[in-house]
Amino acid sequence: MIKRIAAAAALTLGLALAGPAAAQTADRSFEAVYSVHARGVEAGDFTYSFRQTGSTYAAAAEREMKGWVGAALRRSQDYTYSVRGVVAADGALRPTQYQHQGGRRRDDRPNGRLVQAAFTANDVTTTSVPAGMGMGDPPATPAQRRGVIDQITAIATMLTATGDPCARMLHIYMDGRSRFDFALTPNGNVTINSRAYQGPGVRCRVQFRPIAGFSDPQEPATLNFLFARTESGMWAPVTIEMPTDGVGVVRLEARRLTVNGQRLR
Fold this sequence. Notes:
This protein is mostly beta strands. The protein contains four helices and 14 strands. It is globular and about 45 Å long.
């Protein structure tokens, strides 16, 4: 009992100290391996890594469909992602340069299309190789691109949240073109029993609100996220759901979670 009380006190103290000033000077890391669930089947793998060094950060991810799903899609949903940015004085993550590569392979793009997006406070400029990437119907306007973050930074924003990770609005510009909001609200404390982690956590109700820049029509949806509490002050995403511009909403279920070099259990 005493050990449990001490652990709870340490966790509370750690979260209290992890305010904006501490967050801006932190050196911290997170790595994860997820199973991708799409249209009711386990379809592939998603790996994610985040590293903050002082007032800068970098994150990377890779999605690879496996088995018969991968064969059927012919690598059209396989992507690599990377982003780098800065940590603002209030602890917010601000991307500066994002890129991904993948999608349909052709003779002129054997590894898929390369897309790069340069973020400023007021706009995002997207380029692609080969050129000519569609920007969705309708495309996002300059006003809709103001003050946004990419989807890889969005995961890191929830990971490094001070306070409740479920009490926030995320304005996301996915893949350098697709604009939507995630409106997160708390949905209770839970005990998580997953392949990657067993212990206390929080559940978020997430309203997916598509705005612009999608190739296929998107409908608003209610999603669910689960986060594990960690002694580091970070919130490890155990279950997250993300829209895609091809196979609908996919669910990511953690198989392995590592915080600051220590694997969660």
